[in-house]
Protein 1
Amino acid sequence: GQVRYSVPEEAKSGTVVGRLAQDLGVEAGEVEARRLRLVPKGRPAGVEVSGASGALVVSSRLDREELCGKSAPCVLRLEVLVERPLRVFHVELEVTDINDNAPRFPVPRKNLTVAELTLPGSLFPLEGASDADIGVNAQLSYKLSPSEYFDLEVKTVDETRKSLFLVLSKALDREAMAEHRLVLTASDEGRPSQSGTMELVISVLDVNDNSPEFNQSLYKVPLMENTPEGTRVVRVNATDPDEGINSEVSYIVSNVIPASGIDLFVIDPKTGELTLKGPLDFEDVCVYEIQVEAKDRGHAPLIGHCKVLVEVLDVNDNAPEVWVTSLSVPVAEDAPLGTVVALLSVSDRDSGSNGRVRCTVWPSSPFGLVSTFEDSYSLVLREALDRERVSEYEVEVRAEDGGAPPLRARRALRVPVSDVNDNAPAFSQAVYTVLARENNAAGAELARVWARDPDEAGNGRVSYSLWEGASASGSRSASSYVSVDAESGRLWALRPLDYEELQVLQFEVRAVDAGEPSLSGNATVQLFVVDENDNAPSLLPPAGGGAGPWAVGAAGSPSSELSSSSSGWSLWAWASWGSPAGQVVAKIRAVDADSGYNAWLRYELQEARGKGAFRVGLYSGEVSTARALEEADGPRQTLLIVVRDHGEPARSATATLSVSLGEGAEAALAAGVGTASSGSVLRGSITGVEGGASVSATTNVWLVVAICAVSSVFLLAVVLYGASRW
C-alpha cells in the first residue's frame, strides 16, 4: 500500500511526522537491526528516520515555497530502505501551507500621471500583488485608502489572477490638487491574515488627455523551450487618438513575472516587437507574465498597458537519470532465482511523455528488471549462475524516455559471482599406467598424478592420498610400496621393487578439495614392474634326485655324479669307446629367476681340453658325441659348459663335465659305481634316455612360449603407456 503523511511547513525540528516503522510493519526493536533509513536523492528531504523509535521526524527547515513553489499539493516522494530482507517502500510526504508569506507588490511605490481632462470613469491598470503561499493563503483582496477622486475596481481574470484598475470617480482639478497620494493594501485570506501595501503617487496634468490603447489587453503566445535566441515572440500595437507628438507611442517592458525573466525578453521601443533574448527552460519556469507599457510623447506622457503571457512548451531536452539505491554483491553462484541484486530508481525532469521512462537491462540474462513501483526497479536473478563459466558480469541498465526522438541514459554495474564448492576434483586420466624398473632406489619418483578443480581458493585446493583399501596383487598393501605427495601428486617408491616378488601393483589415488563439505575424485594407477637382469642362471639337480646336473653313460645306463666348488659345478659322466656321433652323454638343467629374455638360457661349450669329441645343444643343454669315440680320445674328456641368459648385460653360470671313456662293460660298471657313490640310482636304458630327452624338449618349447607371452605383455604395456601419455 501507499504510506502518506502530511506536515505543515516551518514545523520545528524534531516534530514527529508519523510512526513510520509501525506503519511499515517493522517491530520497534528491529529498527536499528534492519537499518530502517531514507534513501538520499539529491537535495535534503528535511525529514529523517529516528534510529530509536523508527518515527519520521523533521530534521531541518521545511519551506513549502522553496520546495514546490506554487505547485499544489506539495508532495515529497521518499524512498525508505529496510534490510533483512532487503525491501524498499515509497512514502509520500505532503508539506501543507501555512500563511507565512505576506502579499508583495512589484514596487513599493507606483507613479501615475493623469491628465486633468481625463473623464470620470477612466481606468488606470495597476499591478497586483503576489503571495508565495497557495490556496486561501494566497487569495488576495484589495483596498484603497479613502479618496474622493479615485476608486479601486477589481476584475477576476481567472481562478488565480485578478486585474486591478484605478478608477477616476471625479474630474480632476490640477489647480486644486496637483498630486494625489494613495495607499493600496493587499490582504490574504489566511489565519491570521497578512497584508502588503504599495503607495500610489498620482500626478495630474492638464495636457495630452488621451492615453495609448492596445488593440488587445492580453496577448497569449506559446513558445517551445528550445526556441533559439533572437526569435520574435509577438508584436504588440497601441494607438493614441491624440495628434502630433502626443500620438507618437514608444514601448517598454515594465515588469516580468517571475523576476528571473526580466533579462529574457526585449522589446523594440518603436515597433513593439518583443524578442527572445535568452534560453528558456520549461523545467524552471513554464509561464512568463510580461507587462508592456505604451507611452505617448506628450508634455504629460500618457501610458497604456497590456499583458503578454508566454507559455513555455516542453521539449525532450533532459535525458533520464538512473540511480542505484542499493547494491548487494557479490552474488553466490548457488543463489536462488529471484534474488534481488540491486535496487534502482529512474527520473526525468521533462513532463508528459517526455518524462515517462522505460528501463531495460543488457545483457538480458542472467539478470532481469522488475518494476516495483513508479520509476523504481529491482535487478533480480533470472538464470542460474556458474562462477566457473563466468566469474563476473558487467551489467548495463538502459533508460529511455518517451520523447521524439527519445533520449537515453546508461548505468553500468559490476556484479561479481562468489564461489561455492560445486565441482569435484577431476584427474586428467582415469587410469595412469606407470612403468618402473625393479631395483629402483627407495624414494625415487615413479610418476605424477594431477587433478583439476575449477573452484577457487580453498574450494579448488586439491590434496592427494592413497585410497583406503588400495592393495597390491599380493597380501601386502600398496602403502608399503608407494606413497603420494599430498600437494604435488608425485608418486614415490618407499622401497626397491623386485620383479620376482611383484609384477603389477594396482591402486587408487584420491584427490580431495578443501571445500565445506569437501568433494573428491579417484584415479586408478597401474604400476608395472619392468624386469632387470639381476639373477644369474641356476643349475638344477638331476630329474631323478641328486645333488646337481645329471649325465647318462654311453653304455646305456643313466648315471651322474655332481659336486660343487667355488668355480662352478663339477659333473662326472661315462661313455664307452665306439659310441656313435649324436649319442647323448649328459644333460645340463638350469633355470633363471628373471623373465623374458633375461630368463632365456643358452648353453655353450668352451674350448674342450681334448680333440673336440663332444658338443652341447644350444638351448637343450644336452651333451652328445660330436663323432664316434675312439681309444685315441684318451680315458677322460673334461668339458667346460657355460649357461648364459639373454639379458643386458648377460649373466652366466658354469659347469665342468668330466667324461670317463672305457670299454662298454667298464663304462657300465663305472656308471654303477658312480651312481652308488653319489647316492642316486638311475635305472633305464637308451630308450629311457631318449624319453628324458623328449620331456626336456617339451619343457624348452613351453619355456619359449612363456618368453614370447611375457614379451607380448611387456610390449602391450609400453604401447598403452605411450598412447595414454600422448
Note: Residues 543 and 692 are 9 Å apart (CA to CA).
Protein 2
Amino acid sequence: QSAVNVPRDFEGCSTLRKYFGQLHYLQSRIPMGAEQEAAVPIAWTEIFSGKTVTHEDIKYEQACILYNLGALHSMLGAMDKRVSEECAAGAFTYLRDHFPHSYSVDMSHQILNLNINLMLGQAQECLLEKSMLDNRKSFLVARISAQVVDYYKEACRALENSETASLLGKIQKDWKKLVQMKIYYFAAVAHLHMGKQAEEQQKFGERVIYFQSALDKLNEAIKLAKGQPETVQEALRFTMDVIGGKYNSAKKDNDFIYHEAVPALDTLQSVKGAPLVKALPVNPTDPAVTGPDIFAKLVPMAAHEASSLYSEEKAKLLRDVMAKIEAKNEVLDQFMDSMQLDPETVDNLDMYSHIPPILMEKCAALSVRPDTVKNLVQSMQVLSGVFTDVEASLKEIRDLLEEDEAQERKLQELLGKVPPPQGSPLPPSPGLAEVSKECSKYMEVHEKASFTNTELHKAMNLHIGNLRLLSGPLEQVRAALPSPALTEDDKQVLQNLKRILAKVQEMRDQRMSLEQQLREMIQKDDITTSLVTTDRSEMKKLFEEQLKKYDQIKVYLEQNLAAQENVLKALTDANVKYAAVRKALAEVEHKWNTTVQTLVASYEAYEDLMKKSQEGKDFYTDLEGKAAKLLEKARAACQAAEANRQQILEKEMKKQPPPRPTAPKPALQRKQLELETGGPDAGDLPPLSSLVLSELPEELRSL
C-alpha cells in the first residue's frame, strides 16, 4: 500500500526500493511467476493510455515499481538544484535489461530507451553547467556538451519510432521539437568552446569557422524554440549575444589582422562526447536499501545472492552485445540515409505498365460522354462564325463611313473650301455622327473580346488533342505515357542493386531476430534451483558453465556484424553503376508525371472551355444584332448624306452666270469651223467641249 501511494520525496524512493527488494526476495522463493502455482493477478494503469493492464506474474509488479522509481527520481531531479550529475536512468536501465518488454507498451524497449537517454541527457546538462561555472578547459566543456547532444539524439531516435509516436500521441511532437531544439543548442555550445580552444591555440581560421557553426546551430535552435517559456527564450537571447559577439570579433580580427584561411567545418576533427554522468545503481539485494529479508527462512540467502550475481553477469553479457549491435546499426543507418535508396522504389518500373487510377477515372468519365470533343469543336466553330459575322458587319460600317468621308472631302474641294489635311478626319455628316460614335464603341468592345477569343482558341487547341486521346482506346493512352527504355546492361545493374538491397534487409532482419532470441534466452534463464544445491566455492565455475549456452548465438551475431562491411562495399559499387540508370529513370518519371498532370488538366479544363465558349457565343450574338442594326442605320445615313451632297452641287451650278458671247471669227476660221461642225449653220454654235466648259462654274473647269 505504501508503494502504491508513495509520497513525492526521497522517502518515497526509499519505500519503492525497499518494496522492490522484498519482491525480489519473494519471487526467488515462491512460485509466483507467469503460469506458476502461486501466481496472482496484478493490475497497474498504463501511464500514457490510461488503460488497466493485468498480468499473473510477480515480475510485472517489480517492473511497475521500477518504472515508478525512475519516474519519481526524474521528478525529484527536476525540482532539485542542478548541481548533481546522478540521474534516474538507473531504474529504467535495470528495467530494460532485466525484465520483459511485453508487459505493457509504456515498458517497450523504445520507450525505455527514450526515458534513459532523456535522463542521461539532463544529468549531463547539470554536469555541463557545473563545468562551465568551474571554468574547466574549453575542450573538456566542448566534449561534455557534445555528449549532451549524443544523448538527445538517441532520445530523438526513440521518439521517431512509429510505436513511440502512436503511444505518445500529441506530446510526441512537442517532446521531439524540444529535444531537437536542445540538440542544436548544445551543439552550438560545443562549437562555441571548440572556437575558444582554437583561440587559445592561436588558430584564428579555425576559431572563425567554429564560431560561425555555433551561430548557425543556435539560429536553428531559436527556430525550434517557438512556444517555449520566456526563460528559454531569454537564455537563447543571452547565448546569441555571446556567440554573435564572439563570431563578429573573431571574423573582424581575422579579416584585418591575422588573414588566416578559414577551413571547411567538415575538414576539422569532430568533437567526441565525454559521458561523465552515472545512473543511480539498482541493487535489489542491498540490505541497506531493502532492509531485512522478511523471507530469509524460506531460501538460503547465499543462493539468492548468487542468483543476483548471475543475473548481473547476464546483464553484462547483454550490454556488451548490444553496444556492438548499436554501433553497427548506427553506421548502417547513416550509410543508408546517405545513399537515399528505397528498395521499394529503386526502379519503379511497375508504374509504367498500367494507366494511373486518376487517369483511368478521367477516361471512364469521357467514355460515357462520347460527344465531348465534338461538342467542344462545334461550340468553338459556332463562336468563330458569329465572331466573323460581327467583324464583317463592323468592317462594312467602317468602309461606309470612310467612303462617306471621301465623298465629303471631294465636295469640299469642288466647293473651293480647303478640307483638313489628308489623314485628319472630317467631321462626319450630321446623320453619321451617332453611327460613327457607336461603331467606335463596338470596335473597341470587339477588339477586347477578340483577344479573349484568340486565347480561348489557343486553350482549345492546347487541350483538344489531349481530350481526343482520353476519349480514345486505353492502348493509345498508355502508349502516350513515357516509359523507360532500358538496355539489358541497365536491367542487370538494377537487378544487382535490388539483390544487394535485399541482402541488407536480410542482414537487418537476422540481426533483430538474433537480438530478440538472446533477450528471451536471458529472460528465461533461471538457475536458482541449481544455485540452492551448489556449494559457494563452485559458484563461479557454475556461472561460467551456464553462460556457455550463449556462445552459439554470440557467434551468429558476430558473423552478422562482420558481414556488414562487405555488404556495404558491394552496395557502394552497385550504387556507382546505378547512377546513370537512376538519372535516366528520374527523368522518365518526371516526364511521366508531367504528361499525366497535363492530361488531367485538359480533362478538368473541358467544362471551363465549354462555359467560356457559350459565354463568347452569347456575347457575340448580342453584338452581332447590334452591329446589324447599326449597319442598316449607317447605310440609310450614308444615302441621306449622298442625296444632300447632290442637292448642294445642283444649287451651286444654278448660281453660275450664263456663258459670255464670243467675238466673230475670221472667214478662214469660220470656214474651218463649218468643216469641223458639219455646215455653215453649225458654225454659229460654239464647239461642244467649249459649251460644256462654259456651263460649269469657273472653279470646276479644271476637272
Note: Residues 671-685, 687-691 have pLDDT under 50 and may be disordered.
Protein 3
Amino acid sequence: TDAEVSTRKKTFAEVQTERLDQAERTVLIKCPSKLNEKKLLQYLASHGNVKSHFFFENRGISALIEFSEKSSIASLQDAVGIPSASEHHVVPFKSRLFTFTLKNPVSQHVEETPLHLAPQCHIPVKDLIEKLCLADSISSQMYILLNEYQLTEENIKLRFLACSLVRDFARAYFPDSTVKPFGSSVNTFGKLGSDVDMFLDFRDTGKHATKMKKGPFEMEYQMKRLPSERLATQRILSVIGDCLDNFGPGCANVQKILNARCPLVKFSHQPTGFQCDLSVSNSIAIRSSELLYIYGCLDSRVRALVFTIRCWARVHGLTNSAPGTWITNFSLTMMVMFFLQRRSPPIIPTLDQLKELAGEKDKHIIGGYDCSFVSDLRKIKPTKNTETLDVLLGEFFEYFGNFDFRKNSINLRKGKEVNKPESSPLYIWNPFEQDLNISKNVNQPQLEKFIAMARESAWILQKEDKTQQMINKEPWGLAALLIPFGRNNSSKMKNRMKGIGSETIRSLLDSLKLNNASSQQKAVGK
C-alpha cells in the first residue's frame, strides 16, 4: 500500500518509477521577466490541478510545473501556439517546453513579491570554508558540506524531466522505450552541477510474458537483424542523436561518440541546464547505482563522509573532471565504502552479505556475472557502530595513508584486503564484473600523491588545537583540509614522504605547486 511505502525507506525501483511518472506529468516554462506567480498558477489551474512547482534561474526565469494528471498537458498544449517564423524557420516539433510572455506587460505596475528561486548549483569552496568555520564540530562541518553539495528535490525533478523529454524522441521510433537516469543522479551521491547520465531502455517490463503463453502459436515480431548488439546500439544512438541535433528544442553541441567502449551521445540540454550523456541500457551500471543507493540510505554518515572526501580530493587536484591518470570519484566512493566495511563493528555490510539477504525477486545474473543483492532496506540490520564523523574522517586518512597498496587490493564483495591479482598501482575490484579493476587508469605518481595528501590531512587533524584556531579566527577541522597544502609547508611534506619512492617525490612536489593555483580554480568552478 502507498501508506506502508511512505513510512519505510522506498526501494530503488520504487523511487525510480515514482520519479519517472512524475516527470511524465511535468512541463517546463520559460517565464516573462516581470512575473506574478499567482497569476501564472491561476492560469495553469484552468488546465488542471498543479501538484507542485518551482522557479529557477537559467538565462532568465524558468518554472517547472508538475500537474496531477497527464491529460492537463494535452489541454495546455492545445492552447499553445507555434512561434511566428519571421526571421527564423522553426522545426514544428511540439514538446513540453513552452515560452510564456505577457500580452500587455505595461499594466503590471503592481509591487511584485520576489519569486523564490531554487538553486541549481552549489556554493564556491571559499564560501563553504567560511560556513564551516562557524560550526561547532567536524561532524557538523561535514553535514554542512553535505547539505550544500547534495542534489535538491528540485534538481532531481529537473534531471528526471530531462530524461523524460529525451524519451519523447525515442518513443517516435520505439513506442515502448523509456529513458532513465543512472549513476550520480540516482545513487544518492550526486552533487549539484554534475552531468546527467541517462540510458535508453527497450525492455518490456514483463507484461508480455504471460500473454505469450496462450494460444497454439509461437509468435514473434519480424525485426531487422544485425551481426552484433554493439552495432544495433550504435545505429539506434546515431539516429536518436541526429533527432536531438536536428529537432530537439534546446539540445546543443550534440556529439556522437559511437566507438567508445560504451557508445554514447553527449549533448547539452539548455532548457534544464544539464550536460547529458545518453547511452543504451547497461544493466550492470544500474546495479551499481542501486548498490550505492542502498549504502547511502543505510546510515547518514556514509554520504557525509563520501561528499567530504570527494570535495577534499577535488581541492587538492587528486580528482579531475577530465579523464586521465587520476583517481575517479567512483573509485574514491568505493574506497570510502571499503573503509566503512572495515570498521569494527562494520558501518555497512559487504556485498556478499547483501547477496545472502537477497530474495527470489532480487536475483540478477547479467552477462554471466552474479549481480544479486537485497533491495528491501528493512532486511538489513542497522549497524551497532557509534563512531562520530570526527573520528571516521581522521581514521580514513590514517587508514589509506598507511595502506599497503603494493601488495593489497580493495574488494567490496568480501570487505577484505586481498592480494592484488595484477600489478596496477591501485586495484579496486569492480563489485560485479569481478575480473575488472575500476581504478586501472590510476598511475603511481597519482596514487603516491593521494597517500601523501592523506598523511598530511591525518597529521593536520591530529595536531590541531581547535579552540586556539577558533579564537584566532583560523580555519579549523574540515575547513583547514579544504585549503590547498604546500603554500608554506613543502618542507614538512618532504618529511612525511619518507616512506614513499623518491623518484616520484620530485614530480609530486612539482604537481603540488602546479595544483595549488589550478585546483583552487577548479574546485571553485566545478
Note: The first strand starts at residue 26 and ends at 30.
Protein 4
Amino acid sequence: GQVRYSVPEEAKAGTVVGRLAQDLGLEAGEAEARRLRLVAQGRRASVEVSGASGALVVSSRLDREELCGKSAPCALRLEVLVERPLRVFHVELEVTDINDNAPIFPAARKNLTIAESSVPGSRFPLEGASDADIGANAQLSYTLSPSEHFSLDLQKSNERNIEPELVLTKSLDREMIPVHRLVLTATDGGRPSLTGTMELVISVLDANDNAPQFNQSVYKVQLPESAAVGTLVTTVNSTDVDEGGNSETSYTVTNVIPLSGRDVISINPKTGEIHLTGALDFEEVSVFDFRIEATDKGTPPLSSHCKVVLEVLDVNDNAPEVSVTSLSVPVPEDASVGTVVALLSVSDRDSGANGRVRCWVWPASPFGLEATFSGSYSLVLREALDRERVSEYEVEVRAEDGGAPPLRARRGVRVPVSDVNDNAPAFAQAVYTVLARENNAAGAELARLWARDPDEAGNGRVSYSVAEGGVGGGWRPASSYVSVDAESGRLWALQPLDFEELQVLQFEVRAVDAGEPPLCGNATVQLFVLDENDNAPALLPPAGSGPEAGGVAAEAAAALGSESGTLWAWAAWGAPAGQVVAKIRAVDADSGYNAWLRYELWEPRGKGPFRVGLYSGEVSTARALDEADGPRQRLVIVVRDHGEPARSATATLSVSLLEAAETALAAGAGSSSSRSAAGAESGSGAASAATNVWLVVGICAVSSLFLLAVVLYGASRW
C-alpha cells in the first residue's frame, strides 16, 4: 500500500512528519538495522529518515511554491528502501500551503488616461495582483481608496482569477481635477491576511470619447506543442466609430498569465496578427491567458481589451526515461530465484497514451522485470547463475511509450556475478607414475602435480600437501621421504632414496582450495625407485668345516670395497684335479645385473695349481698337487658385479699343503672347535633369553607404578 503524510510548508527542520518505521510495520530498532532510507528522485525532498527512531522528519526549508508552484495539491512522491531483504515502499508527502506570500501587482504604479467625455459607468480594466500561494491564501479581494468619481468592480474571469475594473461613477472635469491619484489594495484570504498595493495615476484628457471595440471578448485557440516559431496563432480585430486619428488603432499585449508567456507570442500592432515567438511545451505550461489592448490615436487615446486563451495540445515529443534507483551488485552465483538485483524508475513527461510506457528486459534470460508500483520496477533473477559459465551480464532495460510513432529508451545495467566455492580442485590425472633413481640429491624435483579449480580468488587458490600414510615405506610415513610445495605442486625428495630400503612408495597428494568451507581433491602417486650400482659385493664368512669346504678353518672376515680378510684352507698332497678346496661366498645388496657376481683368480697369474668357478666361487685344484707346489699357496680372488661401473671386493685365501694324515687331524680340530663354539653360542642364547624375561618384568613393574601414581593424583584432585 501507500503511506501518505502531510506537512505545512516552512516547517522547522527536525519537525516530525510521521512515524514512518511504525507505519511500515517495522519493529523498534529494525529501521536502523535494515538501513531504512529515502531514494533520491531527482529533486530535493527536504525530508529525511531519522536513523534511530525511523521517523520521517523535515531536514531543510520546505517551500511549497518552489516545489510545486501553483499546482494543488502539492504531493511529493518518495521511495523508501529497507534492506535484508531489500524492499521498496512508496510514501506520498503533501506539503500544505500557508499564507507566506503577499499579493504582488505587476507594477507599483499604473498610469491611466481617461477622456473627460467618458460617461459614468465606463469601465477600465486593471491589472490584477498575483499571489504565489494557493487555495484560500490566494483568493484575492480588492479595495479602492475613497473617490467620488471612481469605484471598483470585481469581475470573475474564471474560477481562479478575479479581475478588478475601475468604474467611472461621476463625469470627469479635467479643468477641476486633471489627475486623480488612487490606491488599489489587494488582500488575500489567509489568516492573518496579507496585502499589496498599486498606485493608480489617472490623467483626464479631452476630445476622443470613443474607444475601440473588439468583435469578440475572448479568443480561444488550440495549437500543438510542436508548432514552429512564426506560426500564426490568431488575429484580433477591433473597430472605432471615431474618425481620423481617433479611429486608428494599435494593439499591444498588456497582461500574460503565466509570466513566462511574454516570450511566447508577439502581436502586430497594426494588423492584430499574433505569431509564435517561442517554443511551446505542454509539460511546462498547458494554457496561456493573454490580455490584448486596442488603443486609438485620439487625444487622449482610448482603449479596450480582449482575452486570448491559447491551449497547448500534447504531442509525443518526450521519450521515456529509465533510471536505476538502487543496484545490488555483485550478485552471488548461489543467489536464489526471485532475488532483487536493481530497482528502476521509468517515467514519460507526456500525457495520455503518449505517457503510457511498456518495459521489458533484453536479453530476457536470466533476469526479468516486475512492476512494483506505477513507474517503478524491480529487476529480479529468473534463473540460477553459474559464474564459471558467465561471470558478468550486460542487461538492457528497454522502454517504449504508446505514442504514434512510439519513442523508445534503453538503459544498460552491468551485473557482475561473484564467486562462491562450489568447485573442488581436480587433478589432471587420478594416478601419477613417477620414476626416480636412488641416491638422488635431497631436494631434487621428482615431478610436478597440478590441480585445476575454476573458482576465482581464494576459492580457486589451491594448496598441495602429502596425505599421511603411504604404502611401501614400511613403518615410515610417505612424508618422511617426499614433500610437495604447497603453492606450485612441485614434488621433491626430502632425502636420498635407497632402492635397497624402498622399491615402491604409493601415497596420496591432496589439493585443497582456500574457500569457505574448503573443498579438496586427491591424486594417487606411485613412486618407483630405480636401482643404481651403489653397493660393492660383500664377502661372507665361511659356513664352517666340512667335506665341501675341504677343511676350511678358523676366522674369515667380510670385505667391503677394497678391504680384504684372510681365509684359510688345507689341501692334501696328491689331491686329484677338480677337488674343491674352499668356497668363496659373497652377496651384493643391489638387484638385477648390479647384483650378479663373478669370481676371478687375480693371483697367482698364469697356470697355477688352483682355479676359481666363474659364478660359483668354488676354489678347486686345477691339477694333481705335488711337493713342487710348496707348503703353502696364497690366492687373491676378486669378486665383481655386472653394474656400470662395476664394483668389486677382494678375498685372500691361504691354502696349506699337508700330508693326508695331517689333513685329517686339521679337519678333526676344526670340527671340535665348531662344536665348542656351538655350545658356547647356545649357552649365551639361554642367558640372553633369561635377561629378556627380567627386562619385561621390570618394564611392567615400572608401568604399574606410574599408572597407580596417576590414579592417586586424579583421585586427590577430584
Note: The longest helix spans residues 660-717.
